Amino acid sequence: MIAAARTWLGSSSNVSKSNKDDTAAAVAFYGARTGGPLWVDSAGFNAKAKAAMDEVRKADDWGLSAAAFDLPDLSGSHTPETLAAAEGKLTLELLKYARFAKGGRVNPTSLSRILDQTPPVKDPNVVLTELSAAASPDAYLRDQHPQHPQFKLLHKALLEARGGPTKTEIDVDPALKVRIPEGKLLKAGADDAAIALLRQRLKVPADAGAKDTLFDEKVETALKAFQLEKGLKASGQLNNATRSALNREFEANRAPDPERKTQILVLNMERWRWMPENLGKIYVQNNIPEYITRVYKGNEVIFKERIIVGLPAWATPVFSAEMEFVGFNPSWGMPDGIKMRELAPRLKAIGGGDFFSNLFGGGSNGAASIRAYGLKVYYGGREVSPESVNWSTADLRNYSFIQPPGGKNPLGIVKFRFPNKHDVYMHDTIERELFAQSSRALSHGCIRVQNPKQFAAIMLSEGNGLDEAGVQRAMAGGGEVHLDHRIPVHMTYFTAVADEHGKVSTFADIYGHDSKLSAALTGRALRLDPVIETSSSEPPYASETTATSNTKERKGKKKNTYAPPDTLADAISGFWLN
Predict the structure, then answer these.
(1) Which of 1, 284, 369, 410 is an S-S bond match for 576, by CB 3.0 to 4.6 Å?
(2) Cα-atom radius of gyration of the chain, to the nearest Å?
(3) Are strands 169-171 and 503-506 parallel, antiparallel or unpaired?
């Protein structure tokens, strides 16, 4: 029978749909096997095979799809050939299950280059060795799913949402349930009943004693932040396009949609399959759609704070790295992506001549403005006069634009470096008022932290064992402090988070990743995607735009594209959103 199984596995027509690594592992296993079959005997499937197949049939309960597995059937006559075919086929399907459980269904980078993750798929040779030795293959298959506590909570929520003993409560932000009525253009100074609803939607309550129907500066600032996040012109005015974007999220959350809610759970369970199996004894998690950073020590959260993440056109990438340095009073260097995408076209348009005078549209005010920021230009490590460069032909990648430490430095007083190919890091900011906004996708990709001093204290305490006095000395000393014990940093994109009580909190799919993953897993985009207006044209870490699988929903809609700032002055101002 083993010889017949080898013959079956050696036929390309039998294994054409199987993963090549799985097939190679099965061929090697049976080629070296001296014992009998794993799954069959003369009477058909043995007890282990039946237990394993029963587990595979429950794949939907784990966020997989039972329909994806073509289990063998031995309902007919049991000849050596049919038994051998069932043996070989079941082995390949169980290897497939183990691969999918470890995140091997979808390659994240095929969805977006900013999903820079490698699922921890186990070597199929190891899987087959362990599976053949397992007393309970069904238990072994269950153990291949992520062991992270959050995955288990999402799994529990999925079972309950699909008819389990208790009802899963999926918590939708109350602000997303507010609809803004159609009406006239509203801007700062206006007094209108719709402004009260806009305040609820943007989470900007009126000051004590002030009218909630008045369009004040706080409403204008919050509306600009929302418009930036959605790829709209940041006018700060309530126009038709902005109303449409606000109400699209309202429509997505207005009526119960069990299918969409369970699909969101499945998508986020899949993302946990892409995570490293060992997150670290202490680690940082920056959850992009939630705009929150957390520091975990074991299973305990020892720090939680608001963050600002990348604009949709400058999407913050998803990856894992290690915190190595904490720098105090840092200089700021303009990244290549910003130089080439926003600065270079404007410098080439200006051409030669007085760089500083032309930078802000000409005149002494322009020169004064740029010098007020202290921006310096370097070539080959040496400072050069910007007036001496012909910017119409210069390759900006050969030049460095550096801002020394100071009160106008966009990095504030502290910077956190975890080296990565995306040149993304965490830092302080001089624009602290933006943390009050509910929509905080405002940067050029880096992460801004609301309470960087406390975060720095934790990194130095856990990374270098410093006590409070030692932390204060390090802060006062300035410069860059190397961490003796590197701390993992996980940049994540979870749009659903479950708690121990069964409540699931959901967050807006600000970069459109939910729709892309849903299309890859099911062949259709996520129904009623609340952010289909989000656009991304050639971001620095990804070339793709938001998924457009749901063509009926999008038909007739003009797709937004990233529009660089209109003037060089706007571009320079935007640099401080890094």
Answers:
(1) 410
(2) 28
(3) parallel
Quick check: 361 pLDDT over 60?
no
Instruction: Return the ∠ at Cα 505 (arms to 514 and 118), rounded to 5°.
Output: 40
The distance from CA 79 to its chain's CA centroid, rounded to whole angstroms, is: 52
Q: Determine how many CB atoms are found less than 10 A away from the CB of residue 296.
A: 20
Q: Which residues pair with 214 in a beta bridge?
A: 191
Q: What is the pLDDT of residues 414-473, one digit of tens each?
A: 889 999 999 899 998 878 888 888 889 988 889 999 999 999 999 999 999 998 888 888
Strand locations in 385-536, DSSP E? 399-403, 414-417, 426-427, 441-443, 447-449, 479-492, 496-498, 503-506
Tell me the two tokens of residue 344: 């270079």
- 49-78 confidence digits (pLDDT tens): 999 999 999 999 999 999 999 999 998 788
Q: Give the closest residue to 15 by CA, choosing from 7, 102, 39, 125.
A: 7
The C-alpha atoms of residue 60 and residue 105 are separated, in whole angstroms, by 14
Q: Which two tokens stand for residue 358?
A: 């032309």
Tokens standing for residue 35: 């014992």
Residues 335 and 423: beta-carbon distance below 8 Å: yes
- Residue 523 vs residues 203, 493, 515, 516: alpha-carbon distances, Å: 36, 21, 10, 10
Can you read off the two tokens belonging to residue 352?
A: 């030669």
CA distances from 463 to 203, 298, 325, 468 (A): 37, 15, 10, 13
pLDDT of residue 523: 86
Rama region for 362: left / alpha / beta (φ>0; ψ in -120 to 50; rest): left
DSSP-based three-state secondary structure for 284: strand
Transcribe 230-255 into DSSP letters: TT-----SB-HHHHHHHHHHHHHHHS
Q: How far is CA 60 from CA 56, 66, 256, 439, in A?
A: 9, 6, 21, 34
Distance CA(371)–CA(559), nearest Å, equals: 38
Q: What is the pLDDT of residues 201-211, one digit of tens each?
A: 888 888 888 88
Write out pLDDT tens, residues 4-57.
Answer: 999 999 999 999 999 999 999 999 999 999 999 999 998 899 999 999 999 999
Conformational region of residue 524, where left means phi above 0, alpha means psi within -120 to 50, and beta covers everything else: beta
Higher-confidence residue of 133 and 571: namely: 133
Contact by Cβ (8 Å): 214, 282: no
* Among 571, 234, 576, CA closest to 428: 576
Q: Is the Cβ–Cβ distance between 439 and 447 less than 8 Å?
A: no
| pLDDT at site 530 | 39
pLDDT > 70 in the chain, percent = 79
Q: Band of the pLDDT at 113, cuts 50, 70, 90?
A: very high
77-89: b (≥16 Cβ within 10 Å) or e: ebeeebbbbbbbb
Contact (Cβ atoms closer than 8 angstroms) between residue 492 and residue 289: no
Q: Note the residue count of the chain.
A: 578
Contacts of 173 (CB under 8 A, 6+ apart): 253, 506, 507
Helices (H), 465-533: 468-477, 513-522
Q: How far apart are CA 429 and CA 415, in angstroms?
A: 9
pLDDT-derived band of residue 332, with 50, 70 and 90 as boundaries? low
